[in-house]
Amino acid sequence: MSSELPAYQLKFSAKRRSIQLKIQSGQLWVCAPTGCDLQFIQQLIQQKKDWIHKHLSQQQQYTEAGWLEQRQIPFFDDKLQLKIVQDSVNQFSLDGDCLWLQLSSRNKAQSQQKWIEKLVSEFYLQQAQLWFEQQVQQEQQRMSLQSREVRVCNFKAKWGSCDSSGVLSFNWRLLMAPQWVAQYVVVHELAHLVYMNHSKSFWTLVSKFNSDAAKARLWLKQNQHWMQL
Fold it and tell me: Side-chain half-sphere of 31: how many Cα atoms within 13 Å?
């Protein structure tokens, strides 16, 4: 491997038909078909070097400092600045691109950080409930489907779910992703109203109503580690 190239991990697979470059957990991974020429792989990395450095730098930034420490949080395709003030109550309010956190002067000093996390989480939950209800309404009309209820949850290991009664649930952390990614998850869960599996027919239905499905799945896989406070 040339010293001028970014460091990378190489994985061969007999199932692959093309080379994939992905940034995951702050590292470049190269997935290539078995027998692929190493020189060709290095040439591709050289061509994509600017893209690789850009995304490695972004992930390093997210890894080194949490959002709360940076006093900003992602909100779909934008970022909100956190403004923290002392007050008589614990509550939040949104003003333009600023999320104001009012912390009660009666809070114990050691509990201030917990209150910040609690208020920011409550803000996300509130906004996520509003957004997902509206988005589900739009998409289910387009797909000629009908859900029973929309819930927003604090999932730890999944982005959404659909149960047999037609209840759709979504992870509030999707508001930390680009909006087109969250829109894909809505279509994904609505498609489970027709197919309660991940069969070929299911993915065909998802792709019919969301052309970004494959790209969105890859984005979530590569970026999920920083979608937390």
Answer: 11
